[in-house]
Structure formats: structure tokens, C-alpha cells
Design brief:
Strand 7 and strand 8 form a beta hairpin. Helices cover 21% and strands 27% of the residues. Strands 1, 4, 5, 6, 7, 8, 9, 10, 11 and 12 form a ten-stranded antiparallel beta sheet that branches. It is rod-shaped. The termini are far apart. By secondary structure, it is an alpha+beta fold. It contains three helices and twelve strands; from the N terminus they run αααββββββββββββ. It folds into two domains: 42 residues; 160 residues, Distorted Sandwich (Glucose Permease (Domain IIA)).
Length: 255
């Protein structure tokens, strides 16, 4: 009986070994075939990863600050100086309003007379608006600005006015600039002649264009809501008079 069991065990062991041998041969044959096929196709069985060594990222351009044109006002503690250059002929022809010629021609005889720019500093100027002076001219000493809660020099007259009230040219003049800044809002710069220049700020609905000639009392625009620099002072017109580029007391020249 024992001999039969041993013989049966041996037969099964031989069978198992034979099956394992056959499986090993089949697997080896498959591997050889795969390698042979890859070699024939000339393909690499591994994924090619492109090398990045030596590749530099493109340098990003750095932002550059615009160069100052040198014409901006530098009086940091003077009212009305916020990025308003009040320069003459600092704009391109293409920037002018298309109605400039129409406005100029509509002035008729007044425009022709204004071309002479006859103001000489002795004639009296018209008030741009009829109102009380809220803040007086003061360049020799500082005065208190309620909205800013600080003392500053003031190159202009801050004249009270009602919103939408017309603002008139103080004399015959040529418009040399129409612009805007955060402190005095929309403004118009007028060349009166003989080195005198007037600036009217805190405007809305500006009615004139650069290079236009205007007669005395021509409407330049209308009183706007005050900027954040004059919210406590209230509605006003910023009126600055200069002679040869230096501010002068406009009260000495007004009617």
C-alpha cells in the first residue's frame, strides 16, 4: 500500500514539473519575440524624455517708469499743483477737439480782437464767477485748508460758486491748455498776453478748446461739484493768475 502511494506522489510531482517547464519555455519564447519585433521596428520600448539641460527660460521684460517730462509743477505743498503742468502747446494736433475751428470762428469780431492779447497787467480783469473768496491767495505764508486739515501756501483764489453757474474768461485770451487733475478737476489755462496766464479750475462741461481765442466774458465752462480736496470748502472756482510763470495775487488785478 505504501509503495503505491509513493508511486502516485512521484507521478504527480513529475507532472507538475513538466507543466512548469512548458510554461517557462512559452514565456521565454514570447519575450524573445517581443524584443525581436522591437528591434525590427527600430523603436525604443522606453518613453523618450526630452532633455532640458541648458535650456533657459525667456527673460521677462521689466516694467519701466515713464520719464518725467520736466514740465510738472514741483510745489508739493502748494494748492492746485497736483500733476497740472499748465504748459503751452504740450498736446498733439490730433488730440484737439474737432469742434475747435467751429468754436473759434463763432466768436467773430471778439476772436479777432483777442488775437492781439492786449492785456498788459494794468487793466482790470473780470471775475470768473461772482462769489465770496473762500480761501485767499497766500504765497508768503501758509493758510489753513479745512478739507485737508493742514496749512499750505495758496497760489490761487478759491471763489465760491453755485453748481452749473457759468464761468467766464477774465479777459481776451488764447486757450493754451484744457486738462484735468484730481485736485482742481477740469481746468482751462488762458494766455492773456504780456506774460500773464490765468488758470480756471473746478469746471464741468468745458466749452472751449486748446488754441482757441476767446473774448472777455466768454463762457469757459460751468461750476462743478468740488473735488475731494475741497469737499468742506464747498462748490468753488479755482482761479490762479501768473506772471512770467510765477503766481501773483489775483485780487490786485480783478475789478
Amino acid at each position: 500500500m505504501k509503495n503505491k502511494v509513493r508511486q502516485l506522489f512521484r507521478d504527480k510531482l513529475v507532472l507538475v514539473m513538466t507543466v512548469l517547464g512548458l510554461l517557462t519555455i512559452v514565456a521565454a519564447a514570447g519575450t524573445v519575440k517581443i524584443r525581436k519585433d522591437n528591434a525590427q521596428d527600430g523603436r525604443n520600448p522606453y518613453l523618450d524624455v526630452p532633455q532640458t539641460e541648458g535650456i533657459l527660460a525667456e527673460e521677462m521684460p521689466q516694467n519701466r517708469l515713464e520719464e518725467n517730462d520736466g514740465q510738472a509743477e514741483t510745489r508739493a505743498q502748494v494748492a492746485g499743483s497736483s500733476d497740472a503742468s499748465y504748459s503751452v502747446n504740450n498736446r498733439d494736433e490730433a488730440d484737439q477737439k474737432p469742434m475747435e475751428e467751429e468754436k473759434e470762428s463763432s466768436l467773430g469780431a471778439g476772436a479777432a480782437a483777442a488775437r492781439a492779447l492786449s492785456y498788459n497787467g494794468t487793466d482790470r480783469l473780470s471775475w470768473p464767477v461772482q462769489g465770496n473768496v473762500i480761501l485767499d491767495y497766500s504765497m508768503d505764508s501758509t493758510i489753513y485748508f479745512p478739507t485737508l486739515d493742514q496749512y499750505k501756501c495758496n497760489p490761487a483764489l478759491i471763489i465760491q460758486g453755485d453748481v452749473s453757474e457759468p464761468v467766464a474768461a477774465p479777459a481776451e485770451a488764447q486757450v493754451t491748455e484744457v486738462g484735468s487733475n484730481e485736485e482742481i478737476g477740469n481746468y482751462v489755462v488762458l494766455d492773456l498776453g504780456s506774460g500773464y496766464t490765468a488758470v480756471c479750475g473746478q469746471l464741468k462741461d468745458v466749452q472751449v478748446a486748446q488754441k482757441q481765442y476767446v473774448a472777455k466774458d466768454t463762457i469757459l465752462g460751468y461750476v462743478a461739484e468740488p473735488t475731494k480736496y475741497y469737499s468742506i470748502e464747498g462748490n468753488n472756482v479755482y482761479f490762479e493768475l501768473m506772471h512770467d510763470g510765477e503766481p501773483v495775487d489775483a485780487l490786485d488785478y480783478l475789478e
